[in-house]
Structure formats: structure tokens, C-alpha cells
Amino acid sequence: MSTTLEQALSSWNSDKLKNYLPLLSSPHSPTRKAERIAVIAEQLLNPDNLRRVWNKLDSLSQRAVSQAYHHGGSFDRAAFVAQYGELPQGDK
Fold it and tell me: What is the per-residue pLDDT across 55-72, written as a single tens digit (0 to 9) for each?
């Protein structure tokens, strides 16, 4: 069974979700966890918004996202450092 984006985000606490809203340039500032999940999912599931977010990432961050995508959503920090020599700036 695959996990939806909303299901994955529901494992995060509300404050962590709140930190991602400004990164997505969301015009909404919801206060409830369920609303934050909905806004983040809406932003990331829209192809134009996703492309904009992707283009804002540096190349090392794009590689990290690609690695996680190709490993079923799991990010192996040690393998990434072994291959690229460092972690993306925001993941240290």
C-alpha cells in the first residue's frame, strides 16, 4: 500500500508543518494541523507550484530529493554523503 502525501505529512507535528509554509510561498497561514497539511499538499501536488519549488532548490538539494524519490521516499544520509561528500544545507 502506498502512502499519500497527506498521510506522510500527518506524522509531523503542527510546528514542523508551519515551518514549511513560507518555503512554499503559500498565501494561507492556517493554524490547525489538518489545514496546514492540506495547504502543503495542495502546493506540492500542483505541477506549476512544484516546478517553482524545485527550481528554488540548489543542485545538491535536488539530488537529495531525487535520491529519496528513487528509494521509495527514504533518504539515506550516509549513502548521500558517501556519494556527494556533504548533505544539502538545510539537512545538516
Answer: 999 999 999 999 998 998
Give the chain's length: 92
Give dist(CA 75, CA 61) in Å, integer: 12
- Does this model's pTM top 0.85? My answer is no
**Single-letter residue type at 45:** L
Instruction: Give CA–CA dist 35/90, Å, rounded.
Output: 25
- Residue ranges with strand state E in the chain: none
What is the Cα–Cα distance from 69 to 75, expressed in whole angstroms?
A: 8
Alpha-carbon Rg for the chain, nearest whole angstrom, is 14
Which CA distances in Å does 47 have to 52, 53, 54, 80, 81? Answer: 9, 10, 10, 27, 29
CA max distance for the chain: 39
